[in-house]
Hints:
Strand order of the largest sheet of chain B: 6-7-8-3-9-10
CATH class of the domain at 156-364 in chain A: Mainly Alpha
Largest interface: A-B, 25 and 30 residues
Order of helices and strands of chain B: HEEEHEEHEHHHEHEHEEHH
CATH superfamily of the domain at 156-364 in chain A: MetI-like
Distance between the termini of chain B: 42 Å
Oligomer: heterodimer
CATH architecture of the domain at 156-364 in chain A: Orthogonal Bundle
Amino acid sequence: MTxxxxxxxxxxxxxxxxxxxxxxxxVGWVRENLFSSWTNSALxxxxxxxxxxxxPGVFGWAFLDAGFAGTDRTACEGAGxxxxxxxxxxxxxxxxxxxxxxxxxxxxxxxxxxxxxxPILFDKLPFGRKALWFSLAYPFLAVLILLGGxxxxxxxxxxxxxxxxxxxxxxxxxxxxxxxxxxxALGRRSQMPVLRLICIGFxxxxxxIPLVTFMFTAALLLPLFLPSHFNWDLxxxxxxxxxxxxxxxxxxxxxxxxxxxPRGQYEAAQALGLGYWQSMRxxxxxxxxxxSIPGIVNTFIALFKDTTLVIxxxxxxxxxxxxxxxxxPDWLGLGLETYVFISVFFxxxxxxxxxxxxxxxxxxxxxxx
Amino acid sequence: xxxQTAAGPIIEIKGVNKWFGDYHALRDINLTVxxxxxxxxxxxxxxxxxxxxxxxxxxxxxxxxxxIVDGVELTHDLKNIDAVRREVGMVFQSFNLFPHLTVLQNCxxxxxxxxxxxxxxxxATAMEYLERVRIPEQANKYPGQLSGGQQQRVAIARSLCMxxxxxxxxxxxxxxDPEMIKEVLEVMVDLAESGMTxxxxxxxxxxxxxxxxxxxxxxxxxxxxxxTPDEFFNRPQSxxxxxxxxQVISQ
Lengths: 369, 251
């Protein structure tokens, strides 16, 4: 059989022409985007003026007029920021009270995160799927490196602190809350009433009560109620609470994604003979998760920032360490510098997550390649 | 396939009734389909024709009566349902290709995970069927990049890759632009000529008279008339059929 093809001879077609001058290239872009109308031009000029007002001032405060050396507050005479404390305190900000001669273990755990995360985050890497075995082993390896044992000096979790504590809680929460949230979302849509009810109860309970309340509960009340051999580690309890909390949100985000998948997709999978878990894993979830990426990453970012709430139960994360320093007589009055410094850490991580999610959305877009 | 069943009918539907809530959607359906038989089912919308073929692979559950496909009765037993679904292919009005997978991956997914074929073998089979539906060159594209007619042909190939004994078509050309209907019907005619057992819900009366062994007319959940295309189109027996035909053909 033949397909109908419309044969056009070149002579019938008008020849291609280049676009009119000033509409393509850099000049075209500026014209199109910055000066396309009077209001647009006014906004462009106003924005440039505001940048001119703000940027030199901030830059001067943070770098040009700033003091970088010294052992206490008096070392900084300039009008700008005082960064002299950084050199002295950076260890505490990063590692808390982790033994100084052991901090290489924290660095190592963080360094190993790169090969562990890479095969999950990016495709087309060497070693292919085999590299995922390392990703799977990483959480256990990291716990071993950080806590010690097997010849390594043991470091109890009450020595954990600083940004390392934020990353530990945040990363553990992210790793566990996604699969847990997926199961909750599937459970909430299950045909089995009991399972559905349990999932709804769990989700609504964790969404309906503030995280701080759960932190207090975990820190103060659980030890009273649980028998003493249940005396779980405080950091572990915090991780569990943060994970459950994030999982409840992720479950709802993913439920939204699941509802966006047309019924025909389920039916096509069924008609081909795929079972429930096969259809979910191979057909439904890849599509539902793709739709849910912005919401999932949103939840991850919120989770990571919420790790600073451990301050209320007396853990020394980076923010609490900053608070201690602001109150220290040697460095009194350096609140702005301290919080700017801490903000940079959070911003870099959260902004990276945001950029990565946009990259992922583009990579998974199968409609426009 | 097996000797003891090869001679008997491939589908036996006896006294099937189905309700959606209070709505009586299928009423006392009796239908026996012989191997390699090609049946076209037509009728006004809401007459139960889609529901009927969807009960054959248990996308819809019937409440009364029995449906036996290739010797396996459809009950609540998941093993039986799985067995029937492996043997019965289905093509939908809205294609229902998996948009996150390439054309080739769409075609190899079920053979790999349900039939447990090695990937290379599944791909070879898939390319064979993609050639049969005349779009092997699109194998590495995503469904979203294809026209409706091409997508429907991929959907047919995807079903065929499971090497089914029966193919169900649920209004396969209703969502297509007129110029694409032809390319899909050509593929279906080829398939019919190759000896596939087919149940086709369609309003394409040209297709019915060309390939069907039997045309079934349904209305209000019942089979009103069942006859050869020649008898059905030229000497319809019920007034309801005559009315329907006059409406379809005058279009």
